[in-house]
Amino acid sequence: MANHKSAIKRIRSNEKKRVLNKYQHKTARNAVKNLKALTSKKEAEKELPKVTSMLDKLTKRNIIHKNKAANIKSKVMRFVNGLK
Known about the structure:
By secondary structure, this protein is mainly alpha-helical.
């Protein structure tokens, strides 16, 4: 158990950050999943900027690695371009 005031505060702040990061990461994963479930190219093109923006924000906040975000964006864009 933590013995210092600063360590106790660090535990509290880490838990808050962990919960927020988990929420943001899960939201982005759900957005990608929902985008891949679309069958209309028009709808998919409308959702694509939102998803890429979410991934870029996660990367900027160091929630996911930049290469992982690039891979996901690449796969999603290939999916959207393949739709009819």
